[in-house]
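Pilot study result, target chain (566 residues):
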Amino acid sequence: MKILSVYPYTHISSSALLINGKIISAAAEERFNREKMSIKFPIKSANWCLEKNNLTWKDLDAIVVPWNPQINISNSSSRWTSNISWRGEMLSVVPAILMREMQLPNNEFMKIQWGENNLYFVNHHLAHAAFGFYQSNFNSSDILTIDGHGEKETCFLGYGVKNKITQIASINYPHSLGLFYGTITDFLGFKPDSDEWKVMAMASYAKGTSFDKKIKKLYRLTKNGFELDLRYFNYYKFDREKYFFSEKFISEFGKPRKKNDKYNKFYFEIAGALQRNFEIIAKHLIKILKSKSPLNSKNIVLSGGAAMNSVFNGKLDYIKNYKNSYIGHAPDDSGVSIGSALYLYHHVLNKKRITNKEIETNYLGPNYSNQYILKILNNNKLKYKKISNVEKLIAREIKSGKIIGHFYGAMEFGHRALGNRSILADPRLKNNKDRVNKLIKFRENFRPFAPATLNKFVNDIFNIPTNRKVNFMERVYPIKKKWRKKIPAVTHVDGSGRIQTVFKENNLRFYKIINEFYNITGVPVLLNTSFNLNGEPVVMTPEDALRTFYSCGLDILVLNDYVIYK
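Predicted structure:
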């Protein structure tokens, strides 16, 4: 069975192709149109998913959208109509933003011949839940999703058993933990629904708790979740001005930071108070989930945009309510295309689910051959070297102080680069953090980088539970004191690191690079960050990589087995 999911709503659109229960291909539209966080209809990513697998739109058994306009739909079926025979019928049921996209002159979407394909709509938070649960190895699990908002929900509390997902409770808009975080992101001079991780990084610089009481005024915990004091917020007002926060918020907290204002203690302390209170609310929701769930499960799946909060995620291991937790590679809105396809296949169509292994890789995007790369290099008359053992060369060059753009294999799905579209540097050199931030990424100097670490050394370097896998940089853990001076470029100001555990079976090439670096330095860690400039999507094509390489301070570019020096 062939299912295509397209997600053109909110802040990042994507497509995913499922064949017989397995996600074969997936990509965000931003990678194709080069518009960061693109919300345009994902026609390019959708067409790529089909073309890569020698399919046309007519070959599909179903098309699914992870947004349900008929929100009161039962859990047993997420189908709006069995057959779309007239495009106007679809126009009458899709979200307003999708309607606007489709009504644009000469929009490619209007050229699609739907034929007899079934079109399905899945509740947004069910898609989040499905993304996490069906990719875990849990036969049964409690599920918590948190984001800005779906159709009307901002939190989903439920559980999954085998191939079925059941909702227990929800928190509805405008009371939103995601937009609570987004409002203060806005106040701190960043873009909400986009830059929350910058605020998370800032929070580590907070020295005290001076703003905790003020932050607590913004919400109250209830027996069923939480409620925001909406007097402090504007995001839910259709006639609101530019900002998410209200005048009352300003009167309580003072002057908001403008985009180009310098960072100071005032803003860092607010960020710290926000992060602590976010964790209080999230822990409260987990406690409620545990009390309401009939499973008495030791497992929890966390999904939704709030599951990108890697600082909180690292603390899940120490929450008494659950022994095991799973967070996927793209729990934010980019992943709902995958989630909705899985939900349709398993829950709606009742297809059996295999749970013997969790999803541990996200290399679902375009891949480019050496032949294709060679053609690009020759057409542009670039000097290059083809290296037979390129892993050794990369390790040696990194040891010598070089910073490398590494392009290899299939592109990662989601925001985080896991070796195939990565910038790599020596974690031992303290100034590499500033070099990469200032000269290559062109971003804020307080933002940290991930320590990509060989799996067998993880427990030696980090205070992390034994056998904890962190395949997707989804959790932050303390770095042991004896290692902080050894790898200062990936040690955050609070002594922590957003780890990526690297396994031979998941990415042999990346594993070999780090292992070669370990052989010559004794350090089984590399600095890893996404291969892009600030404000741009991660590179997808060799052409993207070349343009980025010559636009910043990178020393070396590796395209598969080809090496280009400046």
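One observation from the pilot: The chain has 19 helices and 21 strands. A full batch analysis is planned for the follow-on phase.
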